[in-house]
Amino acid sequence: MSYTYALPLLAGGGAFALDGQPGVATKHYLLGGKRIAQREGRAGPVTYLYHDHLGSAVASSEQESARYWPYGDTRAGAVSTAYKYTGQELDAASGLYYYRARWYDASIGRFIQADSIVPAPGNPQSLNRYAYVYNNPLRYTDPSGHDPLDSVWQSEFQRVHGREPAAEDILIRLFSIAFPNEWDWSAFYDARGGYIPGSLERVFRDNRPAEWTWEDVPGALDRLAGWYGRGENRLYTRDIGSLFGGLPNRFETPSAWSAVSDANNPIRVWVYLNRTGLPPYLVGTSDSDANVHHWAWCLTMGAAYGPGATLINTGREITQFRGDWRNTWSDIMIGTRGAGLGLHFQLLGLNDNARAWHLFMFDRFVW
């Protein structure tokens, strides 16, 4: 297998990479994370590569063409590049594709190692740890790593949309994982992949289904948690703060303190809920989002600052008292529980989320 080194090529975001194999080097030209051409040796001709909707190399400027069966085995023809099905590298010696975390056998449509996580516990297809892309290869490609916003997702987004993901696209990505049954690409994007202005507000807040309640949050947390690997706990809690609290995302504001203390918080829309699913003293009497923003703000802060988050939240609510102790008390109580849950995620990991939810939100221990 080759080792690839990426170097800058164009001011517009291009790069080239060299396969580190003995003999004649192959230079790959990349644009937006996608291989668009290659050159054999120092003075060889440049071969341009063309890809299908999944990123598979299907043709080249050398009049080559290839077709693939749905799970990636070559059906006919060939294109002279090591990066074939979905743009992944095919190891010629073993006949296996290298998907960074695991090796994939396209002839049987299965990985040869079990997945180290269950990326979507609510989807029965993900319970097969060797299955490829939920057994739906005509629609999905396999990401590398576990962070749902990693460089592989960003490159794939650039390929499909022709631009880098913005803050709105990050929220849409997180929403599609947390609420897959509500996910509709066309609700957010036009036919050219452009973001439809106001669509986040319509889906998350204004036209949300009446059955969106606090009862949906544990499942959403579980589905999100499946995408984060060991050591990515803080990424998970920051993303909860963005999706449910309208906080700046971790790319635009890497510092957790800067995110939770932003004077303009919430800086954009978040997922609104209805009140069912938590005791009335936690959801308040006036907040139209059933206090979910306040909960997510404290959860993010609890993961970063531990018990100090509870003190900050309590002090803030007392100093900002506006004459209604019921709402002040609900903000203090739900903030304390959110901060505790965030600290739990940071210290004990992202397992047993349902048990942690019941413990911190209901004072109830479940086996």
Please describe what this structure looks like.
The chain is of the alpha+beta class and 367 residues long. It is built from twelve helices and twelve strands. The chain has a six-stranded antiparallel β-sheet with strand order 1-2-3-4-5-6. Helix 9 crosses helix 10. The chain starts with a strand and ends in a 5-residue tail after the last helix. The N terminus is likely disordered.
Number of strands: 12
Q: What strand order characterises the main sheet?
A: 1-2-3-4-5-6
Biggest beta sheet attributes = 6 strands, antiparallel
Q: How much helicity do the residues have? A: 25-40%
Order of helices and strands: EEEEEEEEEEEEHHHHHHHHHHHH
- Structural class comes to alpha+beta
Short overview:
The chain is an alpha+beta fold. The protein has helices at 151-161, 167-178, 185-188, 199-206, 217-225, 233-245, 256-260, 280-283, 292-305, 308-319, 325-348, 353-362, and strands at residues 4-8, 14-19, 26-31, 34-40, 46-51, 57-60, 65-68, 74-78, 89-91, 96-98, 103-105, 110-111.
List the keywords.
single chain, 367 residues, alpha+beta, six-stranded antiparallel sheet, four-stranded antiparallel sheet, elongated, disordered N terminus
Topology:
Layout: E1 4-8, E2 14-19, E3 26-31, E4 34-40, E5 46-51, E6 57-60, E7 65-68, E8 74-78, E9 89-91, E10 96-98, E11 103-105, E12 110-111, H1 151-161, H2 167-178, H3 185-188, H4 199-206, H5 217-225, H6 233-245, H7 256-260, H8 280-283, H9 292-305, H10 308-319, H11 325-348, H12 353-362
Helix pairs in contact: 6-9, 9-10, 9-11, 10-11, 11-12
